[in-house]
């Protein structure tokens, strides 16, 4: 990666320098204001561009974690064999290739009960004479994807619009709502050429609005701050001439229902809101279950899973999508804005449990492998 610092009197002029020298694919790493002599000020932007790559081998994001991941897979395999073999053979009387697939799926982190039910439905679709491993695997994939909904609401946008479409980012603390909003704002503004505005309801965290303002200044999109329903409605009205309004919210402790209720009182019965529920891929299954239940009264439009690069078991995402009917929209694979966000697609979700089909042994970091795929499109 080629990194360079640019300095100019204003952000706009600095960004022009970045674009002229590094091109449209430049990545903004940071910016700051500088105090110069005689009261003058300037803006300094650090930007980078990645050299074009040929067909390089994937480099693990956590190269030192391979041993830990091997051990985790081995332990899972032993446990799944001990706990599930008796049940599987007793209820389904399956032949060896199918039980091998069953255990392999459990090792990857798929829920035992969900896997068992899917495999049973898979076999119901196949004649006993058509149960070769490849046929079972293909049918299992179809059964799995039939139960998962995908949704990318931005694909339906067709600006210019008479009124702005409003998307909120809600969820527990620390999942990366603000960063995710910034990634999508950059995508809409720079790739789709859509007029974007931002409203921040996060006035609780120290520096939260400043962090968001840094992004909006770089993107040259308007930002307004609101603390209650009245201010939210006023900000929405003032920004309604844009195509899209993205709303950042304060992280809520899902153990306290009244905290989620605060958001409900701000949004009220406002029509036309799409709520993105942002969840961490590192969260425990039981916690995610509780979070989904707590936020359900708000009216969840679709899910975004972040921190894919920070877990050895991204298949847990699929467990949640099988349990709850909400569509999944995007996957966050790191902190870089706007690069580390990709659409959730059937192929990507399947790669979490079938990485060996892509010529891999399944031990690469999921963050690094997703980063090599196409970005939001």
UniProtKB/TrEMBL annotation:
SMART domains: AAA, SRP54. It is found in: Cell membrane. Necessary for flagellar biosynthesis. May be involved in translocation of the flagellum. InterPro entries: AAA+_ATPase, FlhF__GTPase_dom, P-loop_NTPase, SRP54_GTPase_dom. It comes from Desulfoglaeba alkanexedens ALDC. Keywords: Bacterial flagellum biogenesis, Bacterial flagellum protein export, Cell membrane, GTP-binding, Membrane, Nucleotide-binding, Protein transport, Transport. It is a peripheral membrane protein. GO terms for biological process: bacterial-type flagellum organization; protein transport; SRP-dependent cotranslational protein targeting to membrane. Residues 164-355 form the SRP54-type proteins GTP-binding domain. The lineage of its organism: Bacteria, Pseudomonadati, Thermodesulfobacteriota, Syntrophobacteria, Syntrophobacterales. It comes from the Bacteria. One of its GO terms (cellular component) is plasma membrane. Its main location: membrane. Belongs to the GTP-binding SRP family. Residues 163-360 form the AAA+ ATPase domain. This is Flagellar biosynthesis protein FlhF. GO terms for molecular function: GTP binding; GTPase activity; signal recognition particle binding.
């Amino acid at each position: 990666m080629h990194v360079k610092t640019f300095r100019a009197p204003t952000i706009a002029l600095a960004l022009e320098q970045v674009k002229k020298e590094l091109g449209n694919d430049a990545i903004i790493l940071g910016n700051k204001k500088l105090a110069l002599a005689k009261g003058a000020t300037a803006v300094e932007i650090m930007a980078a561009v990645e050299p074009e790559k040929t067909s390089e081998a994937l480099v693990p994001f956590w190269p030192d974690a391979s041993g830990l991941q091997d051990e985790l897979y081995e332990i899972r395999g032993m446990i799944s064999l001990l706990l599930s073999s008796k049940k599987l053979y007793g209820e389904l009387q399956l032949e060896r290739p199918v039980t091998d697939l069953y255990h392999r799926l459990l090792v990857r982190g798929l829920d035992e009960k969900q896997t068992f039910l899917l495999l049973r439905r898979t076999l119901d679709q196949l004649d006993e004479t058509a149960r070769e491993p490849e046929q079972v695997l293909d049918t299992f994939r179809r059964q799995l994807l039939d139960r998962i909904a995908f949704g990318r609401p931005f694909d339906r946008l067709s600006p210019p619009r008479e009124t702005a479409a409003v998307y909120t980012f809600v969820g527990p603390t620390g999942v990366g709502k603000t960063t995710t909003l910034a990634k999508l704002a950059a995508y809409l503004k720079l790739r789709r050429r859509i007029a974007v505005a931002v409203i921040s309801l996060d006035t609780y965290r120290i520096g939260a609005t400043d962090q968001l303002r840094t992004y909006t200044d770089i993107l040259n999109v308007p930002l307004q701050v609101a603390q209650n329903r009245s201010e939210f409605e006023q900000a929405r009205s003032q920004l309604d001439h844009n195509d899209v309004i993205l709303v950042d919210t304060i992280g809520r402790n899902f153990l306290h229902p009244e905290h989620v209720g605060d958001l409900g009182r701000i949004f009220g019965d406002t029509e036309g809101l799409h709520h993105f529920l942002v969840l961490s891929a590192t969260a425990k299954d039981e916690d995610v279950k509780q979070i989904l239940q707590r936020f359900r009264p708000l009216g969840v439009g679709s899910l975004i899973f972040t921190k894919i690069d920070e877990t050895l078991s991204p298949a847990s995402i699929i467990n949640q999508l099988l349990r709850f009917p909400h569509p999944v929209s995007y996957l966050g694979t790191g902190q870089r804005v706007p690069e580390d966000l990709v659409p959730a697609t059937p192929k990507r979700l399947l790669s979490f449990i079938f990485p060996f089909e892509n010529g891999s042994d399944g031990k690469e970091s999921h963050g690094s492998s997703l980063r090599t795929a196409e970005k939001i499109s």
